[in-house]
Design brief:
137 residues; mainly alpha; Nucleotidyltransferase, domain 5; two-stranded antiparallel sheet; ATPase_NBD; ROK; ROK family protein
């Protein structure tokens, strides 16, 4: 996960283009291990793949889902946009996943020392929109 950081109306890019990397900030100290070696990184809790994995686990262990799990249904192609779509349809498990991901993202933003809004990288724009702005009916 990345954030675009602007200082004096200039986008910071960092020496390797990685300024604004927020995905490896610790949100839950005893959370899941991240490929970076840290525990509880934002990207392991709130990024699209984390939402997808959490929703798959919940669906497989529950009958309270629009996408009720049956052994012949392949949940692997499931994407975060699918989770958001069924959350909007009222799927309790999907709503739970989206709220939790949004909560972690909010914690990250609140803990940031940046006083102005973050400008999110393009690839996460749809996820952030899903987490923060309800679609008009």
């Amino acid at each position: 996960m990345a954030a675009g950081l602007y200082v004096d109306r200039q986008l910071l890019s960092g020496s390797l283009g990685g300024a604004g990397e927020i995905g490896h900030t610790t949100i839950v100290p005893d959370g899941p291990i991240c490929p970076c070696g840290n525990h509880g990184c934002l990207q392991e809790l709130s990024a699209g793949p984390a939402m997808e994995q959490q929703y798959r686990m919940l669906v497989r262990s529950s009958e309270n889902s629009i996408m009720y799990y049956e052994p012949h249904i392949n949940l692997q192609p499931l994407k975060a946009t699918d989770v958001c779509a069924v959350a909007e349809e009222g799927d309790e498990l999907a709503v739970q996943v989206v709220k939790q991901a949004a909560s972690y993202l909010g914690i990250s933003m609140a803990n940031s020392s940046i006083r102005k809004p973050l400008f999110w990288a393009e690839r996460f724009r749809s996820q952030v929109r899903c987490l923060s702005i309800p679609r008009p009916k």
